[in-house]
Amino acid sequence: MVYYWYEDTHYVSTDNAVLSADFIKVTPFASGKLLEFNVKEGDSVVKDQLIGRLDAGPSGGAASNIRAPISGTIVQNNTHIGEYISSLQVPTLALIMNPQQIYVTANIDETELNKIKVGQPVNITIDQFKGKKFTGKVKSMGQASADAFSFLPAQTSGTFTKVEKRVQVKIEFDSVDTKLLPGTNAIVKIQTKK
């Protein structure tokens, strides 16, 4: 009984958490036929590295070159050599993420938010790595619940069921010596009292 009281007053925990990363789009600056795309999923690239080329005609010049917008790892490749690509449609040729900047997105019940502050220490376990412990800190808290961004129409019937909302909390790892995969599940335990 004392254990549960202590846990409840000193920590906020949830298993509604996933590893996340910022995915940056690779897009062309010109329109034309894709002549080459020299990277595949899993390849590492450095910022401004030439990774592909379009046949954009004589006026294409440097805009015919496709370069990596950041340093990181190619996590998705949507290209097909020979296809026509229009820069007006802003196509995503590939996605890149920085594997050193993976974080946890935890969905915290609205009733627990008043206990959480930026900088609080966090214990993290990742389903993929049973028994391995990670640590981190609260980096930021969402400014709206996840439902606020839903485009579903409002309920118009006479019955209303109140549902507890969740707000996303971003947690940064202190240090990582393991290859982490965005989208995998995690459990977080935020220390709210010392």
Q: What letter string, H or E per element, gives the SSE order?
A: HEEEEEEEEEEEEEE
Shape: elongated
How many distinct beta strands? 14
Q: In angstroms, what separates the terminal alpha carbons? A: 20 Å
Query: Any idea what the radius of gyration is?
Result: 22 Å
The low-confidence parts are none
Roughly what is the average pLDDT, rounded to an integer? 86
Largest β-sheet summary: 6 strands, antiparallel, barrel
Number of helices: 1
Q: CATH superfamily of the largest domain, please?
A: Efflux pump adaptor protein, beta barrel domain
Helix content: under 10%
Q: How many domain regions?
A: 2
- CATH-defined fold name of the largest domain: Elongation Factor Tu (Ef-tu), domain 3
Strand content: 35-45%
User: Which architecture of the largest domain per CATH?
Assistant: Beta Barrel
GO biological process, one term: transmembrane transport
Keywords: Coiled coil
Domain Multidrug resistance protein MdtA-like barrel-sandwich hybrid: 24-95
Pfam families: Beta-barrel_YknX, BSH_RND
Break the fold down into its secondary structure elements and pairings.
Blueprint: H1 2-10, E1 11-20, E2 24-26, E3 32-37, E4 44-45, E5 50-55, E6 65-67, E7 72-77, E8 84-85, E9 94-97, E10 103-109, E11 121-126, E12 133-145, E13 166-173, E14 185-191
Antiparallel strand pairs: 1-10, 1-14, 2-9, 3-5, 3-8, 4-7, 5-6, 7-9, 10-13, 11-12, 11-14, 12-13
